[in-house]
Amino acid sequence: MLSISTKAQAWYLDFAISMLLFTVAVVIYFSYANNVQKQEKGDLDSLISDAKFISSSLAISGYPSDWDSTSVIRIGISDGQKVNETKYKNFKNLNYSRTKAKFATYADYFVYFVNSNGDVLNINGVCGVGQSAINTTYNIRSAYYYQDEDDSFLKNFMVGTFNADVFNDDISALGNNLSKYSFVVMEHPLLSGGEFSNYKATLENFTSRGGLLMLSGELASPATNALAGADFKKKSGQSSSQRTAIVNNTDQYLAFTPGQSMIFNQYYYVQNTAAENFLTIATFNNTDDRGVAKWNYGNGTVYFLSDFEVTGYPGNFLSLVQSAATGLVQGTCNPINISAISTKKLARIERYLSHNSKLVKMVVYVWE
111 and 256 share a domain? Predict the structure, then answer.
């Protein structure tokens, strides 16, 4: 039988071993936690460093100073602390993975501008540039009208980009709500004679008060229809060579290259009768018929394209038209929502530049 002294020694030894194990566990825990904190701090410092580098790079002209998507070595969008709208648009059009390589970062990023009121700016059709998980939409009331599903090439774009109200072969519903909108696209509307007569004045009032109207295809079933200072006409039974249009002039937003050609699916054209600043952009082969044109009516602007369905164009025709639409819509965008991104660490850097002689803030998010 063990003596009391022997039992006490055994208990003390057990206690000492337990305390030693506890102490070792505490030391290991705090050592690990400290290392984790240092690692997290190092990762966050790295993100902040990347955000600062992206911000600094964008705040200068880039290299070469007149860079484009082919020649760019270093991305910059500001000339003399002023935002260069063309470079900002070019930045938007660059491949995202390529831009990350130019910024020497593995992290994701997003860049946008806000004014003094905190509104997200639409600069040359761009609300923001970066990770596609962050969706951007335009703060504008718009509408899209079409008559047939086979001629609805811009419907998904208008809904997805502008949250447009859609009107399918219901001109009365559109006409009764036109005063709500600033931008309206009508794709091959093919109004009846009665519908056109009833809503011609409404459409002209929309444009004259400052609305932006983009039309394609056949306006109405009569052969010739006068609207907003121009006659809308059609020719039937034309061959593909006759439906080939040649670009005569470029436009700030509808940026075709002079000399390019495209074959429209149908032959619709316009003639200037009383429009202001009428610009012929493309004419049909061997004629003076305007297949693509732009003009002012009152305080508004009208764009006409013979069709949104083309072949033989050296590029993405619809993408160019969509780019024109986003560029034409000036003003502000809806607030940037970053909740869609999955992130463990996030850095934000702000820098002031100028745009249209006003101070604006460039916001750069970087995360992983």
Answer: no
